[in-house]
Amino acid sequence: MIKALLFDFDGTIVDTESVDLRTWQEVFEAHGVSVPLDRFALRIGTLMGPNELDELDALLDVPSDREAVTAARHGRELELLELEPLRPGVRDYLDRARTLGLGVAIVSSSSRSWIDSNLRRLGLLDGWTGVVCADGDTTRCKPSPALYLEALETLGIDAAEGLAIEDAPNGITAARAAGIFCVAFPNDLTSVLYLSHADLLLESLEDVPLDDLLARFG
């Protein structure tokens, strides 16, 4: 029996990943080049992918002003995030899980400060059973199962009692390596990536109510 839902954050609860890509596309285009999407995809859900500033400079004759690029891109990212809502079906899943007495946790390669700032904006800062983040530690971030194993310990449940919801390959790999059943819930950016190692793929959480999903577990 499932006792807890374990949500990835970026791209799953809020589509921050499409915002991230858009800001980098704007940066690259301002320098007259294009983002190499295959390389960008390696960064999604982890801390160990290619560095975008390195990728940019590799395409330029003269290195970029990294400090200026970083500041401008971050400001643009915050501007766009203010307009980004919860992804469809997420709030219903959270509300129903809590009604059923299930734990609800976040398991993310991002930092706690990043997650908290976004949750605060959305009015979702409270009510989580646990939040487990990499906080810059590349030895614990996805695709390593470390964060999921920590989440299981924090929640006091076995792997078979957790259900992970992820949007991208690195997160799916991490959840499955921890022995947790994983639902792929891709966004527009990650829907074209390899997700076949997930146990189930849902284009939208609105397509399958949480009760119906849980019924698959008997």
Topology:
Blueprint: E1 4-7, H1 16-30, H2 37-41, H3 52-58, H4 66-81, H5 90-99, E2 103-108, H6 112-122, E3 130-133, H7 146-155, E4 162-166, H8 169-177, E5 181-184, E6 200-201, H9 210-215
Helix pairs in contact: 1-4
Write a structural description.
The chain has nine helices and six strands. With 218 residues, the chain is of the alpha/beta class. A six-stranded parallel beta sheet has the order 3-2-1-4-5-6. α1 runs antiparallel to α4. It is elongated and about 60 Å long. The termini are close together. 38% of the residues are buried.
Low-confidence stretches: none
Q: How much beta, percentage-wise?
A: 5-15%
Overall pLDDT: 96
Number of strands: 6
Based on CA atoms alone, the radius of gyration comes out at 18 Å
Terminal residue distance? 7 Å
| Total helical elements | 9
What is the chain-wise order of helices and strands?
EHHHHHEHEHEHEEH
Describe the largest sheet.
6 strands, parallel
Largest sheet: spatial strand order: 3-2-1-4-5-6
Question: Helix coverage percent of residues?
Answer: 40-55%
User: What sort of overall outline do the alpha carbons produce when their principal axes are compared?
Assistant: elongated
What structural class do you assign from the helix and strand content?
alpha/beta
